[in-house]
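Most newcomers find our protein records easier to grasp once they have seen one. There is nothing in a record beyond a sequence line and a structure line. Getting from the letters to the tokens is the skill we practise here. An example says more than a description, so a record of this kind follows:
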Amino acid sequence: LVVAVVWSSGWLDDTQWLNWLASQQVSAKAYAQDHLLSAIGIAMLVYVLVTASGFPGSTALSIVSATILPFGASLFAVSVSSTIGATLAMLMSRYLLRDMVHSWFGERFETFQRAWQRDGLWYLASMRLAPYVPFFSINLLMGLTPVKTRSFFLVSQIAMFPGTVVNLYLGSRLPPLEELLNSGI
């Protein structure tokens, strides 16, 4: 929210904003090199909070993670924390938001329920593999099913892994913002 307000307010021009982001990226990368375990922990905490809360931007967070952390560390952090966050969102849907979630999906829930009854965990896996299905919607819907938490976690971990690898590979191949700014792009 703060980033969106500052970005749209005109307080900073684009060059100042990009220079600030570049300096933050340099600082974060230096911190990660000196304190890798701590940086992984921070990245995981942020990722779990964003994923569990349903804020959009987990793909962008994955890409940013890969520009700061080494690829293997980023793969571990994003893969595990995205699944933990998804599981927390599913549990919140099940125990705290059940009636509200059910009303949000209305008649579409019946279609989902039939597919779930027919295909079960395969349906969850196929939704996780489809890039056009918002993960937060999946998490909320799955909270309305009798899926066991362990099964949800394992299937989500496995099915989200290919997309996680692609996003992290993309992020790991991006040049640092500082380099882009200095090249005039």
Notes: Residues 71-95 form the longest helix (25 residues).
